[in-house]
Design brief:
Blueprint: E1 9-12, E2 16-20, E3 28-33, E4 38-39, E5 46-50, E6 55-65, E7 68-79, E8 90-93, E9 99-100, E10 110-117, E11 120-121, E12 130-132, E13 137-147, E14 150-161
Amino acid sequence: VIANAGPDQQFCNATTATLTGNSPAPGTGAWTTTSGATIASPSSATTIVSGLAVGLNTFIYTTTYGACVSRDTIIIRVDALIISNAGPDIQICESQTSVTMAGNNPAPGTGVWTKLNGGTITTPSSPTTTITALTPGTHQFIWTITNGTCISSDTMRIVVNVQIPSNAGLDQQVCQ
């Protein structure tokens, strides 16, 4: 019986998965690993594995019938979730037409800024890009981090307040 461990798998932040090998009948089948995860039922074609680590987790499915032995390998890739932080909301006066963003480092993933409304993003892939062309009102931007199958987003607002000139009125003279 030719061993078939099934297709490789990829998950975001997972610690468990299901292995689904083919039936070893009329022989026997067994799962082993080199990655330190726990195999719930090593002699079952379908079993749960737990304790998956971020990175590559390798499992080997072996079928045996008499003197015939066949092996197939499956790799379960677990991607780390990087929580996106776009930085604090910002309030500025209309005389200021640009700001520098404060997104977190996306490594080992990649990050990108997108705008919901207003402003111009200078370098969308930089966590600390400059936003220009800000006008009075509310502008919203999303910082999205992607690492394999993991995606995290955070929205921040820039509020540009209209500057109201102060007017104390005319000078007055008072007699005593």
